[in-house]
Specification:
heterodimer, A: alpha/beta, about 25% strand, B: alpha/beta, 12 helices
């Protein structure tokens, strides 16, 4: 899933300081699963924003809505009837959500309440970790389905670097060295020879480096 | 390879090819455009070492570029070993800088991935790592031997560089380190400079493996030595520098030195190491990284019987 964190209250307040009536929109997709932009979080942020505004001696009206997915115009359309009643819309989806809203409602002002972080999953309750960099050309089959592009701080295709110590990355003791895990797995399976193979220069065009990306599925295009 | 059988014709290559025990030094460019300070630092190494590594934004701290500092050294009649990291440049800049370095008279190049920028003084920087150190080695070899860019286009006057790579026998997982060294040699490394060695027992084992695998015949391996200036330095390196293995026995030895004599004890240990490396099977030389201690290099070289350096035309 796409993992996000909520922006600080200060930053959100600053964005909406001139507005009296906002629509706060959650998303039932990834951000609900990572407990940052679903119905519950919408309710919490709404209350916090109203209380904070009250302390300033001003009023803030917040209407709460959580739609199926903000990255789908079909669901975004459900907001059309109401959206002009508000001074602005605050989106609690990943970075895709506010942009879809902005495209659907070009005259409305749209703001993001989240910082979108990475593609990953929960490794334990309350802790999410990155697993994929979305580079567009998956090579994890070379590395026993462990991705050094996303999980090595230097995206090394030939690791581990000289900074790997005690299974940890040189950047932090809180970060596992993915190359240590790859090597140990290969050794356990007696397939270390796999790591004697030279890997070609990566073609980054399929990643963000090639410019904004698009995926066209001909059979689905009408 | 050129007509004379040399890949680059650098002094370092000639020394190694002639079978002499090589001795390289190191010099970090200044944090500024202070050319005089740079010259003063590397002047200590003149005639003492066969080539001087010029570091490239080492520990991710911004300094004068390694290309410029290397070129200044060339102009002063010393031989640089130009270091390049993959952290700060994409493939276009890498190839352009390789051509630029060669055009400025640089003949040795050490290919590195580079410390992560988080260590340095601009941790907010975007890291590049378009290619890694293994691929950088292969790229320099391709440019030199095939005379082509990465895309296969011909280079008008290819860069004839003596290709170096680093090896850290002390990083984890240890069992894999020798294979990583083998990979670098297969990719095209002509010479190897190791991370600084303090754990001699482990290094003896590492070199035995290198010899058993035939690696010492395929590339020249230079053992890394950094003399300890103090117990504090030893403790810092043991605890804070990932991939450096400082045995407790060395820390004890430095601690045991009389007040004010810890630096001397550090130098003594370095000299003992060099003496052992001269005899160690598979080693072709020593790489002395006297960090901000360049002025001590002549004394260490003298006491380790590394002088005079051989001259080859």
């Amino acid at each position: 899933m796409i993992v996000a964190d909520r922006k600080s209250l200060d930053e959100i307040q600053e964005m909406i300081k001139d507005y009296k009536k906002i629509l706060l929109v959650g998303c039932k997709g990834c951000v609900t699963v990572c407990n940052v932009g679903g119905m519950k979080e919408v309710q919490v942020l709404s209350s916090i924003l109203k209380i904070a505004r009250k302390k300033e001696g001003r009023e803030l009206q917040v209407e709460e809505r959580t739609i199926e997915r903000q990255c789908d115009f079909e669901y975004v359309e459900q907001l059309r009837a109401d959206c002009d009643r508000f001074d602005a819309i605050l989106s609690m989806a990943c970075g895709v959500g506010p942009q879809f809203l902005a495209e659907a409602f070009p005259s409305q002002k749209i703001y993001p309440a989240l910082d979108t972080k990475f593609f990953g999953g929960a490794v334990q309750h309350g802790i999410w970790e990155e697993r994929c960099a979305g580079c567009g050309t998956c090579v994890i089959h070379f590395y026993d389905s462990l991705c050094p592009i996303a999980r090595c701080a230097k995206s090394l295709q030939h690791g581990p670097c000289g900074g790997s110590a005690n299974g940890k990355c040189e950047i932090s003791e809180d970060v596992d060295c993915i190359w240590d895990i790859i090597v140990r797995k290969k050794m356990e399976q007696e397939r270390l020879e796999d790591l004697r193979t030279y890997r070609a220069f990566k073609d980054w065009r399929s990643a963000r480096d090639g410019g904004p990306r698009k995926s066209i599925r001909e059979e689905l295009v009408q | 390879m050129s007509d004379n059988g040399l890949k680059s014709g650098s002094n370092l290559e000639k020394i190694l090819k002639a079978g002499h025990f090589a001795f390289t030094g190191e010099c970090g460019p200044p944090k500024g455009a202070n050319v005089e300070h740079l010259k003063e630092k590397f002047e200590h190494l003149r005639g003492i070492v066969d080539a001087v590594n010029i570091t490239d934004n080492q520990t991710a701290v911004v300094r004068m570029s390694s290309t410029a500092a290397s070129a200044i050294m060339v102009a002063q009649g010393l031989e640089p070993n130009f270091q390049m990291v993959c952290r700060d440049r994409n493939r276009l800049a890498i190839m352009a800088d390789i051509l630029g370095a060669y055009s400025l008279g640089i003949r040795n190049m050490l290919c590195l991935s580079g410390d992560h920028q988080q260590f340095g003084n601009h941790p907010e920087a975007k890291n590049v790592f378009d290619i890694d150190s293994m691929q950088l080695i292969a790229l320099v070899k391709m440019m030199r031997d095939e005379g082509t860019f990465m895309n296969g286009e011909d280079i008008d006057v290819p860069p004839k560089l003596f290709i170096g790579a680093a090896s850290n026998p002390f990083a984890d997982p240890y069992e894999f380190r020798i294979y990583r060294l083998a990979n670098k040699i297969d990719a095209g490394a002509d010479f190897i400079q190791t991370q600084c060695i303090y754990n001699m027992e482990r290094f003896r084992d590492f070199m035995k493996r290198a010899v058993d695998m035939g690696l010492a015949e395929k590339a020249y391996i230079l053992a890394g030595v950094t003399p300890m200036k103090s117990t504090r330095m030893a403790q810092y390196m043991a605890k804070k520098v990932p991939g450096i293995d400082v045995p407790e026995s060395l820390i004890k030895r430095l601690k045991g030195a009389v007040n004010g004599k810890q630096a001397e004890e550090g130098i003594r240990f370095a000299i003992e190491q060099i003496e052992e490396f001269k005899e160690m099977e598979g080693l072709a030389g020593v790489h002395l990284m006297a960090i901000e201690w360049e002025h001590k290099v002549p004394e260490i070289a003298e006491r380790a019987n590394m002088l005079p350096r051989p001259k080859i035309d």
